[in-house]
Amino acid sequence: MTTDHPDFDSGHDLDDENGYTPDPERDTAALLDAFFEHLANTVHTRSLPAELTAEMRVLHQELEAANEHRIGDEPSRYNLRLTLALVAAYRLLLPHLHREDALALIETAFVEPLGETLRTATAAMLDHAPDPFAAMVALSKSREVQYFGETFTFVRSADDDRRYLLDVHRCFYHEVLVANSAPELTPAMCAFDGNWIRAIDPERHGLRFERPTTIGYGGATCPFHFHRTESAEPAED
Predict the structure, then answer these.
(1) Which phi and psi (to 5°) does residue 155 adopt?
(2) Where are the domains of the chain?
(3) Which whole-number Å values give the CA distances from 70 to 83, 108, 149, 225, in the listed order?
(4) What letters, b where the CB count within 10 A reaches 16 and e where it falls short, cover 179-217?
């Protein structure tokens, strides 16, 4: 379960007491613009052909059209768009770079541009929540419906005041990448979650998160396990 899409400009969606109100169209566009802009800078600094970034965008659109049949619900429309952007970039970088170099560049372009904004927004939400554990669980549940939908399969082995143990048994991102002969890109999708994971401070927030593996790294499932701890500091006013 990756690539959560908060309001990158303000973090408002993350701390909205009235509920999580996503805007997938806006948030997907923000991610893609940042991704392609980062790649454009990389193309320039590596002295690669200047037209590569424009060609990536064209190929991205072609891949979307070719994979449109994979859309199963509204969230999958945007998740397909995100995933295929990585495929387009990968295909056009491979003739110019070694495979591992291309993979690393794509992961960096996908994870880093909005990383600090996402970490800051997540930390602010947790810092100001009366109960950070409950707030994070509620946010996860909202994302499961609003941003992942029916093309992901979630299994919950615990859901109480102490633990929220969620395991992803079906990952749409991975399925799309396998179907497009690029399963090696799945870890880049997984890595995006590091942005919000690193915002969790167990001592401060009374919340511990565990994800020992993912499908992208060869695991049978993607565990997203939240545990309440006893050492949370009082929320700020």
Answers:
(1) -125, 130
(2) 12-228
(3) 12, 27, 13, 29
(4) ebebeebbbbbbbbbebbeebbbbeebbbbbebeebbbe
Write phi, then psi, for 50 (nearest 5 degrees).
-60, -25
CA dihedral 120, 121, 127, 133 (to 10 degrees): -120
Number of residues in the chain: 237
Q: Structure pTM? A: 0.89
Cβ-based burial of 86 (10 A; exposed 0-12, middle 13-18, buried ≥19): buried
Given a contact cutoff of 8 angstroms between Cβ atoms, the answer to whether 203 and 233 are in contact is yes
pLDDT beneath 50, residues of the chain = 2-13, 15-20, 232, 237
What's the pLDDT tens digit per position in 17-72?
434 456 888 999 999 999 999 999 999 999 999 999 999 999 999 999 999 999 99
